[in-house]
């Protein structure tokens, strides 16, 4: 079974920086080479899933939430690794049924996220999974959506954290597991 260090090394080696995308001044972290490498992808999924387990390896969450869009790619296999369900958090207008919505600021603009009202049952413990923790706005908005459903956000597990944007001032007391801090 791959360890955390293997995941970190793969992430460092395979992530490609794309300057000035999606707009000037932003450096996009392209993880598609990581996803294309079976061993790297397996290692990062195992490492991300660790945030949903206790020190004895027991699963301590009931659902995994993935934030649109790259969070979906990571969260669904994390949910499978933990043997629990996956719930997508989508951009506004993408869900077909009754949903909760939260608007927030991100690194280069504004966004609104939604979750189906019945996606998370009251009292369910939820692990959030995403690719990058930048400003913390997406994680904070998703936490508010989980709470609107009556669920409990137990933490977040992300590939990389952009510490220079100080996201922990927004995520506050929420436990966040990060594979790579930049």
- List the helices and strands in order: HEEHHEHEEEEHEHE
Helix content: 25-40%
Shape: globular
CATH class of the domain at 55-181: Alpha Beta
Q: Please count the beta strands (DSSP E, at least 2 residues each).
A: 9
What Rg is obtained from the alpha carbons, in whole angstroms? 15 Å
Distance separating the two termini: 26 Å
Which percent range describes the beta-strand content?
A: 25-35%
Point out poorly predicted stretches.
none
CATH architecture term of the domain at 55-181:
3-Layer(aba) Sandwich
SS-derived structural category:
alpha/beta
The number of helical elements comes to 6
CATH topology call of the domain at 55-181? Rossmann fold
Q: What is the strand arrangement across the widest sheet? A: 5-6-4-3-7-8-9
Largest sheet: 7 strands, mixed
Average pLDDT number: 95
